[in-house]
Design brief:
Elements (H helix, E strand, L loop, with lengths): L2 E6 L5 H13 L2 E3 L6 H4 L4 E9 L2 E2 L1 H9 L7 E8 L11 H9 L3 E9 L20 H21 L1
Parallel strand pairs: 1-2, 1-3, 3-5, 5-6
Antiparallel strand pairs: 3-4
Length: 157
Protein backbone atom coordinates (compact mmCIF):
# COMPACT_ATOMS: atom_id res chain seq x y z
CA UNK A 1 0.00 0.00 0.00
CA UNK A 2 1.35 3.41 -0.98
CA UNK A 3 0.40 6.32 1.29
CA UNK A 4 1.21 10.00 1.79
CA UNK A 5 0.17 12.33 4.60
CA UNK A 6 -0.36 16.02 3.82
CA UNK A 7 -0.01 17.94 7.08
CA UNK A 8 -0.03 21.63 8.02
CA UNK A 9 1.43 21.88 11.54
CA UNK A 10 2.32 25.43 12.51
CA UNK A 11 1.93 26.38 16.18
CA UNK A 12 3.52 23.82 18.49
CA UNK A 13 4.12 20.80 16.23
CA UNK A 14 1.12 18.96 17.71
CA UNK A 15 -0.28 17.76 14.40
CA UNK A 16 3.15 16.86 13.00
CA UNK A 17 3.74 14.54 15.96
CA UNK A 18 0.44 12.76 15.24
CA UNK A 19 1.21 12.65 11.50
CA UNK A 20 4.67 11.18 12.12
CA UNK A 21 3.23 8.33 14.21
CA UNK A 22 0.61 7.59 11.56
CA UNK A 23 3.28 7.85 8.87
CA UNK A 24 5.44 5.23 10.61
CA UNK A 25 2.55 2.77 10.72
CA UNK A 26 1.44 3.46 7.14
CA UNK A 27 5.00 3.73 5.81
CA UNK A 28 3.96 7.12 4.47
CA UNK A 29 5.92 10.29 3.92
CA UNK A 30 4.62 13.37 5.73
CA UNK A 31 4.66 16.52 3.60
CA UNK A 32 3.49 20.12 3.86
CA UNK A 33 0.70 21.11 1.46
CA UNK A 34 3.20 23.16 -0.55
CA UNK A 35 5.49 20.12 -0.92
CA UNK A 36 2.78 17.67 -1.97
CA UNK A 37 3.18 16.35 -5.50
CA UNK A 38 -0.17 15.97 -7.28
CA UNK A 39 1.26 13.29 -9.57
CA UNK A 40 2.43 11.26 -6.57
CA UNK A 41 -0.96 11.63 -4.83
CA UNK A 42 -2.67 10.17 -7.88
CA UNK A 43 -0.63 6.97 -7.45
CA UNK A 44 -1.38 6.53 -3.73
CA UNK A 45 -3.77 3.99 -2.25
CA UNK A 46 -4.34 6.27 0.74
CA UNK A 47 -3.78 9.97 1.47
CA UNK A 48 -4.09 11.59 4.88
CA UNK A 49 -5.01 15.25 5.31
CA UNK A 50 -4.52 16.99 8.65
CA UNK A 51 -3.79 20.17 10.54
CA UNK A 52 -4.43 21.92 13.78
CA UNK A 53 -7.80 23.56 14.25
CA UNK A 54 -7.94 27.35 14.25
CA UNK A 55 -11.21 28.99 15.30
CA UNK A 56 -13.01 25.74 14.51
CA UNK A 57 -11.44 25.30 11.06
CA UNK A 58 -8.50 23.52 9.47
CA UNK A 59 -5.44 25.63 8.69
CA UNK A 60 -6.03 27.73 5.53
CA UNK A 61 -3.01 26.20 3.75
CA UNK A 62 -4.53 22.74 4.03
CA UNK A 63 -7.98 23.98 3.03
CA UNK A 64 -6.58 25.71 -0.06
CA UNK A 65 -4.64 22.60 -1.02
CA UNK A 66 -7.69 20.34 -0.73
CA UNK A 67 -9.81 22.79 -2.75
CA UNK A 68 -7.10 22.76 -5.46
CA UNK A 69 -7.27 18.97 -5.88
CA UNK A 70 -8.62 17.87 -9.26
CA UNK A 71 -12.22 16.75 -9.49
CA UNK A 72 -12.92 13.07 -9.93
CA UNK A 73 -9.95 11.57 -8.10
CA UNK A 74 -11.18 8.19 -6.85
CA UNK A 75 -8.70 7.81 -4.03
CA UNK A 76 -9.06 6.80 -0.41
CA UNK A 77 -8.37 9.40 2.24
CA UNK A 78 -8.50 10.04 5.94
CA UNK A 79 -8.72 13.32 7.82
CA UNK A 80 -7.11 14.13 11.17
CA UNK A 81 -6.73 17.11 13.47
CA UNK A 82 -5.40 18.36 16.77
CA UNK A 83 -7.25 20.99 18.73
CA UNK A 84 -7.20 22.75 22.05
CA UNK A 85 -10.89 22.09 22.46
CA UNK A 86 -12.68 18.78 21.91
CA UNK A 87 -14.48 18.05 18.66
CA UNK A 88 -18.22 18.67 19.04
CA UNK A 89 -20.37 15.64 18.24
CA UNK A 90 -23.14 17.62 16.60
CA UNK A 91 -20.80 19.83 14.58
CA UNK A 92 -17.44 18.10 14.18
CA UNK A 93 -14.68 20.30 12.79
CA UNK A 94 -13.55 17.45 10.51
CA UNK A 95 -16.87 17.42 8.63
CA UNK A 96 -16.28 20.41 6.28
CA UNK A 97 -12.96 19.04 5.00
CA UNK A 98 -14.47 15.58 4.59
CA UNK A 99 -17.29 17.08 2.54
CA UNK A 100 -14.89 18.96 0.25
CA UNK A 101 -12.90 15.77 -0.35
CA UNK A 102 -16.07 13.77 -1.04
CA UNK A 103 -17.28 16.41 -3.52
CA UNK A 104 -13.92 16.03 -5.27
CA UNK A 105 -14.58 12.28 -5.54
CA UNK A 106 -12.43 11.02 -2.65
CA UNK A 107 -13.59 8.15 -0.46
CA UNK A 108 -12.92 9.32 3.12
CA UNK A 109 -12.40 6.16 5.15
CA UNK A 110 -12.24 7.69 8.63
CA UNK A 111 -11.34 10.68 10.79
CA UNK A 112 -9.17 11.12 13.88
CA UNK A 113 -8.80 13.99 16.30
CA UNK A 114 -7.13 14.55 19.63
CA UNK A 115 -6.36 17.40 21.96
CA UNK A 116 -3.18 19.42 21.60
CA UNK A 117 -1.33 22.13 23.49
CA UNK A 118 -3.03 25.43 22.67
CA UNK A 119 -1.87 28.96 23.43
CA UNK A 120 -4.40 30.87 21.35
CA UNK A 121 -5.93 33.86 23.11
CA UNK A 122 -7.42 33.76 25.73
CA UNK A 123 -5.59 30.53 26.62
CA UNK A 124 -2.25 32.32 26.29
CA UNK A 125 -3.15 34.44 29.32
CA UNK A 126 -3.07 31.32 31.53
CA UNK A 127 -0.04 29.69 29.87
CA UNK A 128 -2.09 27.60 27.45
CA UNK A 129 -4.28 24.54 27.81
CA UNK A 130 -3.57 20.84 27.33
CA UNK A 131 0.09 21.11 28.29
CA UNK A 132 1.90 17.92 27.36
CA UNK A 133 -0.60 16.97 24.66
CA UNK A 134 -0.57 15.19 22.45
CA UNK A 135 0.94 12.85 25.00
CA UNK A 136 1.69 9.14 25.05
CA UNK A 137 -2.00 8.08 25.15
CA UNK A 138 -2.80 10.38 22.19
CA UNK A 139 0.14 9.05 20.18
CA UNK A 140 -0.89 5.48 20.98
CA UNK A 141 -4.46 6.28 19.85
CA UNK A 142 -3.04 7.68 16.59
CA UNK A 143 -0.95 4.53 16.14
CA UNK A 144 -3.99 2.31 16.72
CA UNK A 145 -6.08 4.41 14.33
CA UNK A 146 -3.43 4.04 11.60
CA UNK A 147 -3.05 0.30 12.22
CA UNK A 148 -6.80 -0.22 11.89
CA UNK A 149 -6.88 1.96 8.79
CA UNK A 150 -3.98 0.02 7.25
CA UNK A 151 -5.80 -3.24 7.98
CA UNK A 152 -9.02 -2.05 6.32
CA UNK A 153 -7.37 -0.38 3.29
CA UNK A 154 -4.72 -3.08 2.84
CA UNK A 155 -7.40 -5.76 2.74
CA UNK A 156 -9.23 -3.89 -0.04
CA UNK A 157 -6.22 -2.82 -2.16
Amino acid sequence: MKAVIVCASVSHGNTKRIADVMGQVLEASVVDPEQADMAELSTCDLVGFGSGIFLGKFHPRLGEFVRSLPQGERRRAFVFATSGLPEARLRPFTRPLVRVLERKGWDVSDTFSCRGFDTWLPFKLVGGINKGRPGAPDLEAARTFAEELRGRIGAVS
